[in-house]
Each structure stands twice: as C-alpha cells, then as structure tokens.
C-alpha cells in the first residue's frame, strides 16, 4: 500500500461537543509550538453540495459549517498568527478521520470523561480511529483537570522491539514545551524467582531493566541534549506504572504496535489503561 503524503499540519476532529472544542484548543497550542498549520475537520455523511445561487435557508450543511466556523472564530482570538484550515468532509466520521490522520503529523480527538472517575469514554469512532491510525492520535478531555498544563511529558516504554516513532514523538513534545521527559518502564518481577531469592532477585530485575532502559534512551539523549530526562523503573505492571507516573503531567505518550492484518487491530493493556484512566491528555503512537 502506498504511504500517504504527510502534510505539515495538526488535525483535530470536531463534532460540536465541549470535548472536541477542548481538543481544538490543545491542538492549536501544539501546532503553534511545532510551527505547523491546524486543520479543523468535521465529517458528516449527509453533507450536501450547494449551487452558488442556493438560498441560505436551504443550506442543509448549516450546522456542520457552524461547528467548524465557531471553533475557528474562537481559536483565532488566541492564535492570530496560526494558519487554520476549515475542512468539511462528506463521509463517515471514522473513515474521514483515518484519512485525515494519514496526512497529518498528528490527529487530536476529544473524549468524554466519566463522572468521578479519571477516565476517557471512547465511542466507536474514537476506538476505530486509534487502533487503525497511521499517525499519533491524541485524546483530550474537557475540564481543567485534564488540560495538559503539567510541567513534564511522560512516555511509557516496553523495551521490546524498536520504538523510534514513540521516542521521537515524546522527545519532540518535551523539547517544544521546554519541559523534562519522564521515561517510565514497568516490569513485574518473576514470582518464582522472587519467592526463592527475595529482595536480591527483585534488585536483579531492577538492575537488568535499568540497563535496558539506558541502552534504549542513549541515542535519544545524544540527539536531544537539551531535554532533561528522568528515567524510572517500577516493579509493577506496566499499565499501572504508566498511569501512576502520568498523574498531573502535560501529556502521556504510549505506543501501539502495528499488528499484521491477520491479527486484526487491537489495543494492548497499557494503551487501554492509559486511555481509560490517565488524568491528562494521552498520545497513542503507532510503531513497529
């Protein structure tokens, strides 16, 4: 399959909700930091073509246009120099968002938080997009507690296989925000070895994991010498380690492996935990 040409743009999906407007504000900030354009995309399968002489009263696209126009008007007040592109697409939202993501540096979506629980509510469209997108997808909730104004970026690392896309996204995000990068790896000690060796075996697990983490981070430290890195090994489940480390951070970055088609698109346990329980914006980055 031919690779889509990536444009120098951040795309946000709009549906008229408070969550999608929060996503638009986050995306505008990120586009400005990265010196990219911002594309506001709204998709509706029933969008109708209009002739130039069609009366305004007959415009069946009125509400779709208003969703995008109102967001544009609000964003331009805070970002007068940002290039903002309005994009109305006559297609199913899931299909339109995947196509937009393929041509963007990242796709930003709003997600609904569940009352009293730091959680994202992912609808069918959001889930469909995350598990199939070729580019990073950022999930953003409305509300001050999830606005991503923390003073560090957190990245969860598995240490298995190449993770260049994941680390590049995390480092660039930390660099453009001028904040530290907190690299976290969670690993459960082998229960049989721990029972036999006690604290000594746990220390061995910790030391081995730290060596592996240092090896993974070394070339990126050299590439981004100005980014201060905090590396941490947690002897617990990777999912729990990542979610706890992300508390009050600017962004949590997690990876999603690109599975062969025979296996079908799916989310691993760490990504599921992150998108359901992190109390900050979450970037899901596809990697090999």
TrEMBL record:
InterPro entries: Rossmann-like_a/b/a_fold, Universal_stress_UspA, UspA. Signal peptide: none annotated. It comes from the Bacteria. Residues 9-140, 151-286 form the UspA domain. Belongs to the universal stress protein A family. This is Nucleotide-binding universal stress UspA family protein. It comes from Streptomyces iranensis.
